[in-house]
Design goal:
Layout: H1 5-11, E1 17-24, H2 31-43, H3 49-69, E2 73-81, E3 84-91, H4 103-106, H5 129-136, E4 139-145, E5 148-156
Antiparallel strand pairs: 1-2, 2-3, 3-5, 4-5
Helix pairs in contact: 2-3, 3-5
Length: 162
C-alpha cells in the first residue's frame, strides 16, 4: 500500500506544522514558471538553496506529470513543518495504481544500469519524472482525492529556520 501524506509525516522527522499554502492551478497560465517562483519564495530562508532546488525540481515534475497524464493540475499545496515540507499536487487523474510507489520498482523498467558513474545517462529522455521524485524527496506517495488524486513528496530540510 502506498504511503499517504499522513504516513510521510509520521515517518519523517518534520516537526510541527508551521504554515500551510494551497494554490488553485486550474486557470493559471504558465503553471510551471509560476510554481518555480512560488516554491523558491515560500522556502526562502528555511533551508539551503540546494534543498530548495530539489523541492522545485520535484514540484515541476509532479506538475508536468499532471499536465501530460492526468488532465491537468488542480492545485498545489505546500505544508511547511519546523524541519521539512510536504508538497502535494492534486490532479484530475483517478488511477492511483498506474503510479509505482516503491522506488525500487522504478528502476527495473529503465534500460541499463543507473549508477552514480553513469549520472543517469542511460535513462530515456522521457519517463524520468518519478525516478527524479524518488531520488530527490525523502519520501513520496499517491492517494485518492476528491478531485482525482494527490501525489505528495516530503523533504527534510536540514538547518531549517521555519
Amino acid at each position: 500500500m502506498p504511503p499517504t501524506a499522513a504516513d510521510l509525516i509520521r515517518e519523517l522527522p518534520l516537526g510541527p506544522l508551521v504554515d500551510h499554502h494551497a494554490f488553485a492551478l486550474t486557470a493559471r497560465e504558465e503553471p510551471l514558471v509560476w510554481a518555480r517562483k512560488t516554491v523558491r519564495r515560500v522556502l526562502a530562508g528555511r533551508t539551503d538553496q540546494g534543498r530548495i532546488e530539489d523541492a522545485v525540481l520535484v514540484v515541476v515534475e509532479l506538475l508536468t506529470n499532471a499536465i501530460r497524464h492526468a488532465g491537468g493540475p488542480v492545485c498545489l499545496t505546500l505544508d511547511i513543518y519546523e524541519m521539512g515540507v510536504i508538497v502535494g499536487v492534486v490532479d484530475r487523474g483517478r488511477d492511483t495504481t498506474a503510479i509505482p510507489t516503491d522506488g525500487d520498482s522504478l528502476l527495473p523498467n529503465l534500460p541499463g544500469e543507473v549508477t552514480a558513474a553513469t549520472g543517469g545517462g542511460d535513462l530515456p529522455e522521457s519517463g524520468r519524472g518519478l525516478f527524479l521524485v524518488n531520488a530527490f524527496a525523502n519520501g513520496w506517495g499517491v492517494e485518492p482525492a476528491r478531485e482525482g488524486k494527490v501525489v505528495t513528496a516530503a523533504f527534510c530540510l536540514a538547518g531549517s529556520a521555519a
